[in-house]
């Protein structure tokens, strides 16, 4: 009986040692300053030191209650050790409006992804664990200051300026792998993962990413995909089966749109389709309550993956939607009305950096922790850690990390899901795939 508590204590100690090591290397003043110099953000010594600026931005953007640059400024001064370190608003704003500010934030975020993502690994169902990774692709747009319309034109006339953030999220690590910021008018397909890097990886993407040339190249490079099909998709059917695998020979040779509820009453159709010289698999399901069909295109073989599994796996793509929601809501990035391109881009990257660090600490504390719940009380557990780093209070970091891990493990547990909602949650989907 005494062995279990001892083992848990040793595990927690090892976790804290590892966590402190990784954070200390990334939040090291010398490292942050070196990247600031490389990107040209820091050309000479100033009152606003790069490490203090980064840590105060992470703190401010994690709280979710910042509405303006002035809030970031107050957070910076609030984390200073003395009044002599306070800076006025104008010099603070001038630092953020440097073109190099966005480049510096982007580079730091890319380093954070490289360092922290590899340290985390979720437990995947056996069927999915055979893939090297499952990549979730999506783009999300949001309005920016109208003064940026020339640089970031919007698709919608009511909002002259908007940006699109193209994100690739790793399901295996529950962390973003890449992000690109473009004008809202940019094509989403151009930011899909490179096919030559997709060997033994599975891609999940929505209808905006349907590109059969890309699918063919992906298959040639040993990659797999499940992509939601658009309404205009109308391929020729080579072979048709229902959801239970029964052959439906009368549907062969027809086009997809020729099969409606009058000609076939199957709720699920599992089809082999032809598009140009290539063959793909298409799964279609009828949703009676909504009176509409949903379509998924894939290259996963029907001999190994049932139609139900294809649809269930695709639901995992919702995780990238949740990440965008967390970015927009919890870090409050949509509230900053600035016509300065560098500030806008820099704060988007800083928001993602804040999210990565929050998630990394939360998931180290409890692999099954609710990152949503953990992100709601950062003033309790994250800000004290950041303050210790900004003040270089090295002796206090271990104690604050211990408190953070204890707090998250007790207060950010995932809620027990009702049976009716189990297939909608990631844990429920994993449970079904494991059964």
Which labels suit this protein?
435 residues, nine-stranded mixed beta sheet, globular
Strand order of the largest sheet: 3-2-1-4-5-9-8-7-6
> What portion of residues is helical?
40-55%
- Name the poorly predicted regions: none
What integer value in Å does the Rg equal? Answer: 24 Å
- So how many helices? 15
Strand content: 15-25%
Q: Structural class of the helix and strand makeup?
A: alpha+beta
For the record, give the distance between the C-alpha atoms at the N and C termini, rounded to a whole number.
32 Å
- Average pLDDT works out at 89
SSE order, one letter for each helix or strand:
HHHHHHHEEEEHEEEEEHHHHHHH
Q: How many E-type strands?
A: 9
Q: How is the main sheet built?
A: 9 strands, mixed
Summarize this structure briefly.
This protein is an alpha+beta fold and 435 residues long. Helix content is 43%, strand content 16%.
Describe this structure in words.
A nine-stranded mixed β-sheet has the order 3-2-1-4-5-9-8-7-6, with helices on both faces. The chain has 15 helices and nine strands. With 435 residues, the protein is α+β, with helices and mostly antiparallel strands.
Topology, pairings included?
Layout: H1 3-26, H2 29-38, H3 50-63, H4 69-78, H5 89-96, H6 99-116, H7 126-129, E1 133-143, E2 162-170, E3 175-183, E4 201-205, H8 212-220, E5 224-228, E6 236-242, E7 268-275, E8 278-287, E9 292-298, H9 307-314, H10 318-330, H11 341-365, H12 371-374, H13 378-390, H14 394-411, H15 426-434
Parallel strand pairs: 1-4, 4-5
Antiparallel strand pairs: 1-2, 2-3, 5-9, 6-7, 7-8, 8-9
């Amino acid at each position: 009986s005494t062995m279990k508590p001892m083992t848990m204590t040793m595990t927690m100690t090892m976790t804290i040692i590892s966590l402190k090591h990784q954070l200390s290397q990334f939040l090291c003043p010398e490292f942050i300053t070196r990247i600031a110099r490389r990107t040209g953000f820091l050309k000479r010594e100033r009152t606003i030191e790069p490490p203090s600026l980064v840590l105060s931005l992470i703190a401010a953007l994690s709280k979710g209650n910042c509405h303006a640059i002035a809030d970031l400024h107050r957070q910076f001064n609030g984390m200073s050790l003395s009044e002599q370190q306070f800076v006025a608003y104008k010099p603070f704003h001038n630092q953020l409006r440097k073109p190099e500010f966005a480049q510096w934030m982007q580079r730091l975020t890319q380093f954070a992804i490289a360092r922290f993502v590899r340290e985390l690994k979720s437990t995947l169902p056996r069927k999915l664990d055979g893939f090297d990774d499952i990549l979730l692709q999506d783009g999300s747009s949001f309005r920016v200051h109208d003064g940026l319309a020339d640089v970031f034109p919007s698709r919608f006339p009511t909002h002259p300026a908007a940006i699109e953030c193209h994100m690739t999220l790793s399901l295996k690590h529950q962390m973003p792998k890449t992000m690109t910021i473009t004008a809202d008018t940019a094509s989403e397909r151009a930011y899909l993962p490179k096919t030559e890097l997709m060997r033994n990886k599975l891609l999940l993407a929505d209808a905006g990413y349907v590109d059969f040339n890309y699918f063919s190249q992906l298959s040639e490079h040993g990659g797999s995909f499940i992509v939601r099909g658009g309404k205009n998709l109308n391929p020729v059917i080579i072979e048709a089966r229902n959801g239970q695998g029964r052959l439906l020979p009368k549907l062969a040779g027809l086009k997809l749109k020729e099969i409606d509820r009058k000609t076939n009453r199957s709720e699920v159709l599992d089809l082999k389709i032809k598009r140009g010289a290539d063959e793909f698999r298409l799964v279609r399901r009828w949703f009676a309550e909504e009176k509409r069909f949903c379509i998924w295109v894939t290259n996963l073989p029907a001999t190994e993956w049932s139609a139900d599994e294809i649809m269930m796996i695709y639901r995992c793509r919702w995780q990238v939607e949740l990440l965008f929601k967390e970015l927009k809501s919890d870090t409050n990035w949509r509230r900053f009305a600035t016509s300065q391109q560098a500030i806008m881009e820099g704060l988007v990257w800083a928001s993602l950096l804040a999210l990565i660090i929050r998630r990394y600490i939360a998931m180290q504390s409890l692999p099954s922790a609710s990152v949503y719940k953990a992100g709601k009380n950062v003033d309790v557990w994250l800000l004290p850690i950041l303050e210790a780093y900004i003040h270089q209070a090295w002796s206090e970091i271990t104690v604050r990390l211990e408190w953070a891990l204890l707090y998250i493990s007790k207060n950010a547990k995932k809620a027990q899901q009702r049976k009716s909602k189990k297939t909608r949650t990631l844990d429920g989907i994993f449970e079904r795939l494991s059964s």
